[in-house]
Amino acid sequence: MTGRHAPDHLIAGYADGSLPDADAWSLEMHLESCASCAGRVSRAVRATAAGPVLADLREAVLADLGQAVLADFGRRAPAAAPPAPAVVPSPLRAPRLLWAVAPAVRGAWLPAVLLVALGAVLLAHAAGFSAARPLLLAVAPVVPVAGVALSYGRHADPLHELAASTPSAGLRLALVRTAVVLAVSLPLLTVAGAVVPSSGAPGAAAWLLPGLTLTLAALALGGRLGLRAATAVTGGGWLCAVLAPVLAAPDGAVSRHLSDQLSRYVGGGAAQGGWAAAAVLCAALLAARRTAYDRLERH
Amino acid sequence: MTTIQVAGLHVRHRRTVALDSLDLCFGRGVHGLLGPNGAGKTSLIRVLATVAAPTGGRVRMLGEDIADPRGRTEVRRRLGYLPQDFGYYPGFTVREFVAYMAWLKEVPAAQIPAAVERAVARVGLAERIDAKLRTLSGGMVRRVGIAQAVVNDPAVLLLDEPTAGLDPEQRVEFRELLRELGASATVLVSTHLVEDVAAACTEVTLIAGGRLAYRGTPEALTALGAASDGVGDHPIERGYTAALRAHREVAAR
Amino acid sequence: MTTLLGRTPSTAARAAPLRPEFRSGFAPLAGAAVLLTLAVALAVPAESWQGGWAETREHTHAAAVLLGIPLALAAGCRQGGRERRRGTGDLLETAVRGALPRFLASAVPVALWVAVGHLVAAGCALLATWYCATGDSPYVVVPLADSLLLGCAALGGQVVGRAVSWRLAAPVLATAGYAVLGFLSYDHDNAWSALSPLIGTSAGRVPVWWQPWVSVAWVGGLAAAAVLALTARRRALALVPLVCATAAAVLLVQSGGPTRPVPVAGRQVCDTSTTPQVCVNARYGKLLPQITGALSGLTGRLEGVDNLPVRFEDRAGRPRADEAELPMVVPLGWSVVRGRLTEPEQYAWEAGTALVGRAGCDGLDPAVARTDAAVEHYLAPSPQEKHFDELAAQGSPADRAELRAGQRARARLLGMAQDERRAWLSEYFATAGDCDPSGVPAL
To answer: Taking 60 as the threshold, does the pLDDT of residue C360 lie above it?
Structure first.
């Protein structure tokens, strides 16, 4: 919109509906602040076929309202006259918003979770692998940690620097994405673990507290080290502590050693209590360092 | 009325000092930020965009202290920022991307469609508004970045190398946009292209070695270049090199 | 204004241009990762190898082959993809130096650091055993050969990383490497199982002197062939290491994983001052004082008794006619942890049971069983005896009657005079080990 008033050809086009959308919006913006142009538009519209219809409408509305409203109405542009503007649907539909809110779910992470769950079930039932549940319990706590790594941070999110300058930035965004990751992985893997036969390993729900603790620890460390390094440390540390002694056993009884190792780490009330206490500690640490997420990740 | 006040700003990366006790004020208008590479321009823009925390000093923007989280959130609602490395989602269309950024900036949901259309029209991409970002050229993507920066009608606009990848005609249109924005907002443009500064900016700030080297209008800088025979092909370039040399002589003493 | 020509290059600038790769970057990280993983893998089951040199060798060798080689492959693969990730490929193609020196310049640091990481882990394991060693001597050839194996694996992984441009190549290669090695190592019936560096050894058998080096030639030949095939100007040069590797493989498969018995495992260290004598396998000969001390009560009470076995023996296989089996000391981690007997009373009781020798008889006469229990109680009571007595006291009337009878037998044996008891025990031990109850003297 250049100049001080709208040019005539724009107004004529607007009145008979032949104006492109962008120009129509620009004209409407101008009309909001320019009364004389608004009057010109309404005169042009009344001259078209819609004029008599609008005149009746105006009479009916004025008859219902009082004088004060009339005075108010007279000042404003009769913008009820736009000739059927294209109803612009909200550009940001819910699916797109969900797509942006949950980066981990739309990428390679979801197929990986499904692979782990289905793979464990298939190994146990179709291939008769006896150590399917211990293996699932060993891998399951790392899955949400990997999801967190893929959903927040400068290496995972191309919009990280832009989003850091908006009011939505901060721990809340990271926690929303982590909640999505947990909501997807927790039920899937627990159900898969329950379906797989036990063979001496701890129960199917034994990995929930360790998984939650590792995720919170990754978030708490991420404020200092950057989320990529923090998730590598927590996820890699868990896998190393659980799998390294088992895989290197000289007598080759991998499944038995794995069951023993897992029973030691996650089996029994004392171990679960320890994980719960660690989860509370990590949550407290995260709450204390929540302002670390307000800024750009430096690493 | 000053929109941005910077007092004693000190920014350190690991062991190098990026900004050393900087004092600045910015009001309404278009301010150009010039300086050699590594002088601290990007650090300053990042601090003002509230994405990096200063090591020392105070920054007040729009009446709020950005060290306070609530003040920071309030400032971010009225802030527009285009970083140098501008990341985006290739599968989004222009409309969806700018709308997503508007949503992140907490623009009221009812106003988002109109704001998106307006912002995209302002940068001249109205006919490509439903094209996917991966099909656009580098210059068009940069313009989409500018669109997302202005979608919430910001009071403070921070642009880091906004004309990188734009052809000369687009740069002319961009300068027009800058002048229009500078009428109602505080715009800070960090750039290496001195012609942009000369044409669009009302004030020039020169930063070298983390310190303020020069502050004045483009005409004054040109005059400085003419007076103390600076090196360069453009009058502003000559002023730039002259001001740098003078600053380094002062710093060496 | 100073010109560039006016400055003389400092000595630092003349230093080796290849040094930064060794000093910082990915190579030290890879070495640290290998060290950490091997350390965790060895530290968790530490009780089962600390104190025994052969057990230490087994555990470190298994950890190095099953964990170290896949990790080395993954580290090499990641380093190999570096040119592609950083986009320096085009720039390096314009270099004057050939492809092989360029490859080695980026590959050797990783290989070296991985080998060093393994050496440090193995060294720490050897140190951890050294202070509580029970006999035998350290085996140092195997860790050295393993370090070379890891270095070669890192080089091979680098070739894969250069050739395959996939983000997941490193973890997939490590998993595949582990699967292949595990399959080869643990499936001993397989004819190809000798190709794995981890051949079937045990505490008493050690690989022959040339097996580790031929393994190194096999793996190293494969790696060298891959390197040359990728980088040499004349690709046919890769056939030379390939031929060496094939020869080594043929040798390994034909010999079928050769091991020889360790001489020290066939010897014993004896204490001849007691009745019966106590002999301990020379592999943990330093335990002899502890074992003799644990058995001192038992042997003291058997002073002057006839018809006893001459000695407790600790060799592989069944004991001879006049010998009794010493209770087992291996596997480590149960009765012996870090060179100390964990439960001396339990150990002495097991020795007493071995002397009585009727543990394998079915359907034993209750009177004979009671007599045996009384003798065991006299020689060396079990630590759980009190607990079982309490259980019987709260049990059914039959249990209580049995308990009372057993206690009467014990009291009768203890109440005998010294000479009477010795004579009775001599008569008793004449029937030891015999399941027939007819000759056993009554109490």
So the answer is: yes
Q: Please tell me whether residues A205 and A135 are part of one structural domain.
A: yes
CB–CB contacts below 8 A, A to B: 98
Do A127 and A191 have their domain in common?
Answer: yes
- A249 vs C contacts (CB less than 8 Å): 45, 62
A299 in any annotated domain? no
Question: pLDDT tens digits for C85-124?
Answer: 888 877 787 777 888 988 998 999 999 999 999 999 999 9
Query: Does B have 3 or more CB contacts under 8 Å with C?
Result: no
A124 with A218, same domain: the answer is yes
Question: Could you tell me which chain A residue has the CA closest to the CA of C64?
Answer: A248
User: For B154-204, what is each residue's pLDDT tens digit?
Assistant: 999 999 988 887 888 888 888 888 898 899 899 999 988 888 888 889 999
Give the distance from residue A92's alpha carbon to the nearest chain B alpha carbon, in angstroms. 6
- Mark yes or no for CB contact A165/B50 under 8 Å: yes
Q: Say if domain B1-78+155-166+175-253 classifies as CATH 3.40.50.300.
A: yes
Q: Let me know if residue A1 belongs to a domain.
A: no
> Quick one: A146 exposed, middle or buried, by C-beta within 10 A (0-12, 13-18, 19+)?
buried
Percent of chain A with pLDDT over 90: 27
**ipTM rounded to 2 decimals:** 0.80
Beta strands in B137-249 (DSSP E): 156-160, 186-190, 203-208, 211-216
Q: Looking at beta carbons, which residues of chain A come within 8 Å of C44?
A: 241, 244-245, 261
Q: Model confidence over A228-282: pLDDT tens digits? A: 999 999 999 999 999 999 888 888 788 888 888 888 898 888 999 999 999 999 9
Residue A28, domain member (yes or no)? yes
- If one counts the domains in chain A, the total is 2
Binary contact (A250, C36; C-beta < 8 A): no
- Taking an 8 Å cut-off on Cβ atoms, the answer to whether A96 and B148 are in contact is no
State how far the Cα of C25 lies from the Cα of C34, in Å rounded to an integer.
15
Identify the chains in contact with A, defined as 3+ C-beta pairs within 8 A. Answer: B, C
Q: For A244, which residue in chain C has the nearest alpha carbon?
A: C41
**Choice between A58 and B2, residue whose per-residue pLDDT is larger:** B2
Closest partner CB to A244 (pick from C58, C67, C182): C67
Mark whether A160 and A20 lie in a shared domain. no
Residue of C34, C36, C37 to mutate, testing the A interface (most A Cβ within 10 Å of its Cβ):
C37
Residue A80 lies in a domain: no
Check pLDDT > 80 for residue C13.
no
Domain spans, chain B? 1-78+155-166+175-253, 84-153
Does residue A69 sit in the same domain as residue A132?
no
Q: Are chains B and A in touch, 3+ Cβ pairs below 8 Å? A: yes
Q: Are residues A68 and A163 in the same domain?
A: no
C73 pLDDT higher than 60:
yes
The answer to whether A161 faces chain B, any CB pair under 8 Å, is: yes
A55 shares its domain with A132: no
pTM of the model: 0.78
Taking CB atoms and an 8 Å cut-off, how many pairs form between chains A and C? 42
Hey, which chains touch B, using 3+ CB pairs under 8 Å?
A: A
- Of all residues in chain A, the one with the smallest CA distance to C168 is A108
- Give the pLDDT confidence of C166-203 residue by residue, as tens digits: 988 999 999 999 999 988 888 777 778 888 888 877 77
